[in-house]
Design a protein that fits this description.
Elements (H helix, E strand, L loop, with lengths): L9 H39 L4 H17 L13 H4 L3 H32 L8 H16 L2 H12 L3 H25 L4 H8 L4 H35 L8 H9 L3 H35 L1
Helix pairs in contact: 4-7, 4-9, 5-7, 6-7, 7-9, 8-9, 9-11, 10-11
């Protein structure tokens, strides 16, 4: 069975082809203009940041030589030839690494709790008071804008050395970061369950408890697990300023040029983070699969 297609006259096709060609040319000019603006902005940024490729290439060998030095013991042997000497401080480092993980865990749990409260109070579909919205959003912005290491420095000055400043620093930074994500999740929920709870006479807290949380719980858990991975790394860095954990031992080894100690601690951190990433990734995928199946 054949079909006959009607071909419009050339007089009708010509304007359509011209309009299409003009649209393609306009699109191409827009893309080229955007690329040109991006390249100019990138070049100006490099100049403003004083990024010099000649210095980079000239000093690149120092970077490689430092990491090469990490593979040698003080005796001149490779680290893998004498594991007992390489990991001579394994017991102490393991306890400090455990403290780092606990700092990240407590900070993540505390920050997540504050983020849930802040995310609800920063959601336009649940809060009618503009003043409360503005204040909550500004507080969350402040918490996530200030780097966690700056918070750690402030808390170390206030409370002294130890794990407490690290927990407080991670808590505040986590609350600010997750609070924004949770607010966006809450603003995209289906409001019908909330309206149903309200229609039965439920209070605002009941609306949040039974109408909002069941819809966002899997997202909250997924984001929190992802943040925990980040906080394990962050807890190591804030240890550089005396906020507890293995970071204090790592920065001491770096400053005193204990190369084999640096490589041993870094290897422990890498393995730890890999295991945490693998476990939390599997949990996140399960949670997302449960959300899709619902």
């Amino acid at each position: 069975m054949t079909q006959t297609l009607a071909v419009p006259p050339e007089e009708q096709i010509r304007p359509l082809l011209a309009a299409y060609a003009e649209a393609v040319a306009t699109r191409r000019r827009t893309v080229l203009l955007g690329c040109a603006v991006f390249c100019i902005a990138l070049a100006l940024s490099w100049i403003g940041a004083e990024v010099r490729l000649d210095t980079f290439w000239a000093q690149l060998g120092n970077f490689g030589s430092y990491f090469g030095r990490l593979t040698y013991l003080d005796t001149g042997q490779h680290v893998w030839t004498d594991p007992p000497s390489w990991f001579w401080g394994l017991r102490r480092w393991s306890l400090q690494l455990l403290q780092t993980i606990l700092i990240a865990y407590v900070g993540t749990a505390s920050g997540c709790t504050l983020a849930v409260i802040g995310g609800v109070l920063a959601s336009r579909n649940l809060i009618r008071s503009r003043a409360l919205l503005v204040v909550t959003r500004r507080v969350l912005e402040f918490c996530r804008t200030v780097p966690d290491i700056v918070f750690a420095l402030i808390f170390v000055f206030a409370f002294g050395l130890g794990a407490l400043p690290g927990v407080l620093a991670i808590t505040l930074h986590t609350a600010g970061t997750l609070g924004k994500l949770f607010a966006e999740v809450v603003e995209n929920i289906d409001m019908k369950p909330v309206e149903g709870v309200s229609a039965t006479g439920g209070s605002w807290f009941a609306q949040v408890r039974f109408g909002v949380l069941p819809q966002v719980l899997s997202n909250i858990a997924s984001y929190t697990l992802l943040r925990f991975e980040i906080n394990v790394r962050g807890a190591t860095v804030i240890g550089f300023v005396g906020a507890g954990g293995i970071g204090q031992e790592l920065i001491t080894a770096i400053r005193k040029f204990y190369y084999s100690d640096v490589s041993a601690i870094l290897l422990m951190l890498i393995v730890c983070v890999m295991l945490i990433d693998a476990g939390s990734e599997r949990l996140r995928h399960r949670l997302l699969a449960m959300e899709r199946d619902r």
